[in-house]
Amino acid sequence: MSLSFVFLLFVAYSFIGWVSEVAYCSVIERRFVNRGFLGGPLCPVYGFGGLLVIFLLEPFSGNVFYLFAMAIVVTSFLEYVTGWALETIFRTKWWDYSHYKFNIHGRVCLLNSLLFGGMSVVAVRLVHPAIVSALARVPPAGQSAAAAVLAAVIGVDLALTLKTLVALREKIAGLAAFVENFRESVDVREWFNEHDLSGSLARIRARASLDSSEATQRLLARFETLLFRSSGMARIVRAFPSIDRRIARKKTDSLNARRSGDALDYFLEFFAASFVGVLMESAWCLATTGAFESRTGLLYGMLNPLYGLGAVLMTLALSRLGKRRELTVLLLAAILGGAFQFLCGFAQERLFGSISWDYAGSLANVGGRTNLLVSLLWGVSGLLWVRDARPILLGFGDRLRGRVGKSIFVVLAVAVALNCAV
Question: Disulfide-capable partner of 120 in 70, 71, 283, 371 (CB 3.0 to 4.6 Å)?
Fold first, then answer.
């Protein structure tokens, strides 16, 4: 598969994503909304997402449920990283799912993740074969020529878009400074909000229709000139009406900041993660194979020490990073989790001469002991563990720090140690 062919796939999925976004948002807004990041009919994040889903999840294309679940992980990971990057580079929040249930910092939410999962299944099973078949009819020379032309056009579009985005912050600051001159004649607090530009424009227009004074009319004209002097600026504001420069920085979780952990905390984390890991794996096997398998890693009890040790590793390495470095936690958890699983597989092979998992046939695997997709799963799990699950677990553990609670933990610790030894 040539580079030109891959690039044309990227363009195709970027266009399909643009059509999907426009259709979805236009139905909700009851008007045409160009939701493209670029000026042209393309959403690059869908292009990258489409390539990731097609090439990364190809081994799972035969099982719809497996494909759906893995697509949720991959697309959510991409959307989260993209949202973080845009906020970090442009100091602007482009979308916010904070008002949806089960969201992570407003960058991803369960509803959208499920929609992306469904779209990915359709893409892999139906859309991708059709696109490949259509492109295969174009001679290689034609593919190269088309890719070159499209790359040049997209490059120019991207340069103009980036120029507009860089100027957006200065524009908003200029508007804020400009309206200060009218505070005595016009109460700008009634309509101007630098974090809601479309709403501000609508409110000042409504005021101008009722107030024909020179100050109000000058204010409206100046506002429109500053904000919509370029078509690119107007498009960005219309496409992302909820664009917000207030990048919220949540405080570090008090339980993570209060203490690094003691023996009781670490054992509670190990025990809980070992138990939940067995439940997750057993449920996964039941859903994907239709048969129940006991995925325990010990002879007695529903415990898998691999997950317990992984949770403690995430705690030791990442808990001090806090909530303000979520992308760092995500990426480090992916690296640590992949490396940890590789070492566990290597140790099992050398010590016991057995293999519990083998990813040799998957994309981007390392010795069959881990692969890119598994590492992404470790990354997502590590982020959820450090940010959400661990604080809740520690809060529960604090209630069991009495004499009876500690006695129970001691008995459990001894039992688990004996179980591991056997």
Answer: 71
